[in-house]
Amino acid sequence: MDALEQVARWPVETAAVCVLRREPAGVRELGRVGPADHPFRLASVSKLLTAYAVLIAVEEGAIGLDDPAGPPSSTVAHLLAHASGLEFGGERALAAPGTRRIYSNTGIERLGEAVTAATGIAFADYLTEAVFDPLGMAGAQLTGSPAHGVHATLDDLRRFAAELLAPTLLSVGMVATATSVAFPGLSGVLPGFGRHEPNDWGLGFEIRGHKQPHWTGRTNAPDTFGHFGQGGSFLWVDPAAGLSCVALSDRDFGDWARAAWPPLADDIVAAGRVPAADSAL
Questions:
Q1: CA distance 99 to 184
Q2: Residue 240, Cβ neighbours under 10 Å: how many?
Q3: Alpha-carbon distance 63 to 115, whole Å?
Q4: Cα–Cα–Cα angle for 136, 239, 227, rounded to 5 degrees
Q5: Quick one: which of 94, 92, 88 has its CA closest to 109?
Q6: What is the pLDDT of residues 82-116, one digit of tens each?
Q7: What are the Cα distances from residue 211, in Å, to 8, 42, 143, 196?
Q8: Would you say 228 and 253 are in contact if contact means Cβ atoms under 8 Å apart?
Q9: Measured distance between the N- and C-terminal CA atoms of the chain, rounded to whole angstroms
Q10: pLDDT, mean of residues 241-252
């Protein structure tokens, strides 16, 4: 069966999905369904874009991963990795930095403030100048929180997914660092999927590891990275398979997504491993 045919059965009004594969000649689109130019609320998928802009600021020398940021003894790296101890949506520190994985919108917002303080550029403008414009993400816009305030189209996220498969804005080494486990061994709750020990995370990127249940497939490699959002969307990259999938929808995350997303991922991984000349997503 065509791996993307199942998207038509999702209980959503509008969905848009694309699959990319890294090949020797570059990044190739294997298939897509849904509108390319429909704007979607990315919710927490916004965190990937914010993290990428922060990492660009690091490589530009504006800030450092070890710079203080957030609660006492916390750093930029702690905030990126949800290891600062900050609570989800407030100012309280619930743990010492580096001791628990506490998913925090506040921590991501503090990163935006740190970039603004270091560069003198409002974070929404910095994100546009550092990420959206260079990648041609003409429909992407941050309004509100850097943790969940981006709206964008499938064409926009397709361009970002291609960047993750073949980086141009960051060094390969920085992307490898960002998509490897930061502060290993920390336990915590993955929103929507419960507590995991460990709850692996990179610098802004959730790492699949051996978490189960999970929003990716059982056949996705442990080093698969990405993010999903409560707006009903996700982006994952499976480095072992050389594949990425972007899915955007207009229905909030819930049981429908828990049931629909992992089988889609498994079917994409299975189809994506077929030689390019024979692959038909």
A1: 10
A2: 12
A3: 7
A4: 65
A5: 88
A6: 999 999 999 999 999 999 999 999 999 999 999 99
A7: 28, 23, 32, 7
A8: yes
A9: 9
A10: 97
Task: Please name the residues in contact with 25: beta carbons below 8 A apart, sequence gap of 6 or more.
Answer: none
Residue 103, Ramachandran bin (φ over 0: left; ψ between -120 and 50: alpha; else beta): beta
Whole-number Å distance between alpha carbons of 205 and 182: 10
Superfamily of domain 5-272: DD-peptidase/beta-lactamase superfamily (3.40.710.10)
* Maximum pairwise Cα distance, the chain: 55
Pick from 195, 203, 241, 204: which is nearest to 222 by CA? Answer: 241
In degrees and rounded to multiples of 5, residue 3 shows phi and psi of -60, -25
Hey, where are the domains in the chain? 5-272
Quickly tell me which residue has 């900050």 as its tokens: 86
pLDDT, mean of residues 212-235: 97
3-state helix, strand, coil in the chain (%, to 5): 35, 20, 45
Q: What are phi and psi of 173, to 5 degrees?
A: -65, -40
State how far the Cα of 182 lies from the Cα of 81, in Å rounded to an integer.
6
Q: Which of 212, 200, 215 is nearest to 262 (CA)?
A: 215
CB 204 within 8 A of CB 236: no
The predicted-structure confidence for 156-211, as pLDDT tens digits, reads as follows 999 999 999 999 999 999 999 999 999 999 999 999 999 999 999 999 999 999 99
Q: Which two tokens stand for residue 208?
A: 């699949």
Of 246, 252, 51, residue with least CA distance to 146: 51
pLDDT of residue 272: 84
